[in-house]
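[Q] Does anyone have a clean structure-token version of this?
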Amino acid sequence: MRPSAVELLPDILELLVFGVGSAALSLVGAYIEQFALLSVQHGNLGLGAWAVVMGLVALYFAYLLGTDKFHPKLREVQSTLAQD
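[A] Here you go.
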């Protein structure tokens, strides 16, 4: 039996949160990496090195959120919608 839209709403909201969170973390990580590059170019190596590490951490969490949370939840929702 196909589930109704109300039954799928929590799963779809969770999927939306994971997707938006992963995209936001990716954008933040890219911005921090750009800041790190500019800091190093202007001669501030300490701040640039710290920013590189922080940008990589943000990008890593974006990757983990996308692969560990978003992708499995997407498969689950797709399989639920494909049921007859």
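[Q] Thanks! Anything notable?
[A] Residues 33 and 55 are 5 Å apart (CA to CA).
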